[in-house]
Specification:
Layout: H1 20-24, H2 41-52
Length: 53
C-alpha cells in the first residue's frame, strides 16, 4: 500500500495525490494539510479485496 511511512512528506508535496494509506487510515497530523486530490476510498477497498481474493 502506497504511503506506509511515518514521516511528514514535506511542504512541497501537499498539493499531490494523498497516499493510499492516509486515505484508508486518516488521522496523521500532516494529512489535514493536504490540498491535493484524494484517492477514492471505495476503490482502494476493492483493490485490497481483489488482491486477497
Amino acid at each position: 500500500m502506497d504511503g506506509f511511512g511515518n514521516h511528514d512528506p514535506g511542504i512541497n508535496r501537499y498539493g499531490q495525490l494523498l497516499a493510499e494509506w492516509d486515505t484508508l487510515h486518516p488521522g496523521r497530523s500532516w494529512e489535514r494539510k493536504w490540498q491535493g486530490q484524494r484517492p477514492n476510498r471505495d476503490q482502494l477497498i476493492e483493490k485490497i479485496q481483489n488482491y486477497f481474493g
